[in-house]
Amino acid sequence: MFSVYVLRSLKNGKHYVGFTSKDPEERLRQHRSGSSQWSRQNGPLELVHKEMFDDKESAQRREKFLKSGHGRSYLKKLVFRLA
């Protein structure tokens, strides 16, 4: 099982889109521990969206879409209007 997840910075409202074979909550804990430069610079973080996929290729396609211009617009309408 693979998932695509979206994190939002509580510091500045920026968002991060990623995919993982791990549980999204576990991945969030890793981000919160400062596992990447982006996480360290933009934390604290919250998980605002996740989608589950049966295969890696589908998850990677979805991640790529969410990082595109249309995907960012989609996220803004779907996720960030709720924040």
Rg: 12 Å
Number-wise, the strands total 3
H and E order: EEHHEHH
Instruction: State the separation between the terminal residues, measured CA to CA.
Output: 27 Å
Q: Overall mean pLDDT score?
A: 91
Helix content: 40-55%
By oligomeric state, this entry counts as single chain
The number of helical segments is 4
Q: At the first level of CATH, what is the class?
A: Alpha Beta
Q: What's the CATH architecture name?
A: 3-Layer(aba) Sandwich
Strand % is: 25-35%
* CATH homologous superfamily designation: GIY-YIG endonuclease
Describe this structure in words.
The protein is an alpha+beta fold and 83 residues long. It has one domain: GIY-YIG endonuclease (3-Layer(aba) Sandwich). 46% of the residues lie in helices and 28% in strands. The chain has 4 helices and 3 strands. Strands 2-1-3 form a 3-stranded antiparallel beta sheet. The chain is globular, with a radius of gyration of 12 Å. The chain starts with a strand and ends with a helix.
Brief descriptors of the model:
83 residues, alpha+beta, GIY-YIG endonuclease, three-stranded antiparallel beta sheet
Give a quick rundown of the structure.
The protein is of the alpha+beta class and 83 residues long. It is 46% helix and 28% strand.
Question: Which SSEs are present, and which pair or pack?
Answer:
Layout: E1 2-9, E2 15-20, H1 24-32, H2 37-42, E3 45-53, H3 56-66, H4 69-80
Antiparallel strand pairs: 1-2, 1-3
